[in-house]
Amino acid sequence: MNRPYRLGIVGVGKIARDQHLPAIAGNPGFALVATASRNAQVNGVRNYTHIGAMLEAETDLDAVSLCAPPQVRYEQARAALEAGKHVMLEKPPGASVSEVIALSEFARKQNRTLFATWHSRCASAVEPARYWLAEREIRAVHVRWKEDVRRWHPGQQWIWESGGLGVFDPGINALSIVTRILPHEVLLRDATLHVPADCSTPIAAELDCIDTNGAPVHVEFDWRHGPVEQWQIDVETTDGLLSISEGGKRLAIAGDPVALEPEREYAALYERFHWLIAHGTDDVDVRPLRLVADAFLLGKQIEVEAFGR
Ligand code: NAP
């Protein structure tokens, strides 16, 4: 197709404004023509308050990018696919594993692209780390993903409600990296979820996993951390330590920093979405969400001090 794909954005909040709008503006393969958001609007395009109204009025839209919270992802994606649109999902791709699988099957039936994005997998350290680890023997993995929820999620109520994932909302970014870079699958064995008395989702969690070769993978997520974030993945190998820090912006191997490409997570996501549409294919990897679901399945829930929402 020579013309850009006509795109609609749904759920104009923090991530849509911080990342999606600039990435779309910088990609000549897409033209933003409409939004659907109950309150927010974007200048220079047609704005609707509901995805149904947008799909009904904008019959020549090619694709839709869903940026609302995960609790409404399935209904919005299903409506867009039914209307014949290609669909890009913010992470996490849904509030449950089963709804993502159902969407994936429906997209194939509709012959439309479904792209479940994991933006952290596009961080600069990830592919060099994956390449280096592919030939290595892994001894142990330590994940520490800790930040101050009041700084990073001010006023967001959906994170504390069922399906909002709590601390797994950022934590799933770490799991998306781990499941990409490790040469073996990761299995969850045990978990502890710390749930504030006034919330439905955890504020902190520890996961004990192994890879299918038996190497331990220990994960710590904490939203009570601060003021300096810790977004760190350390992989001990027989050839030394591989260390990803700053959420994937930095990489060190055996103590030496590795030179990386500049950060362009969302630019890369829209390039991939364009490629997937142009090649008539899809990309849906549920493994990070499946580990979160396993933590809720197997984990102990401990009530902790109320958050004060
Ligand atoms: P947000 O700031 O709360 O924005 C989401 C927007 O979606 C809201 O402003 C709201 O806009 C709309 N919305 C909220 N609840 C809705 C509902 N029940 N039904 C329909 N629309 C609803 O959240 P966000 O931080 O942008 O996060 C959205 C998604 O992006 C999440 O899945 C998150 O994990 C992911 N993400 C966030 C970040 C980040 O740094 N914030 C980074 C990467 C990925 P209206 O009121 O106008 O409808």
Automatic annotation (TrEMBL):
InterPro entries, sorted: Gfo/Idh/MocA-like_OxRdtase_N, Gfo/Idh/MocA_oxidrdct_glycsds, NAD(P)-bd_dom_sf
UniProt KW keywords: Oxidoreductase
Coiled-coil residue spans: none
Boundaries of every Gfo/Idh/MocA-like oxidoreductase N-terminal domain copy: 6-115
EC number(s) recorded for this UniProt protein: 1.1.1.120, 1.1.1.46, 1.1.1.48
Membrane-spanning intervals of the chain: none
Name of protein: L-arabinose 1-dehydrogenase
GO molecular function, one term: galactose 1-dehydrogenase activity
Gene3D superfamilies: Dihydrodipicolinate Reductase, domain 2, NAD(P)-binding Rossmann-like Domain
One Pfam family from the record: GFO_IDH_MocA
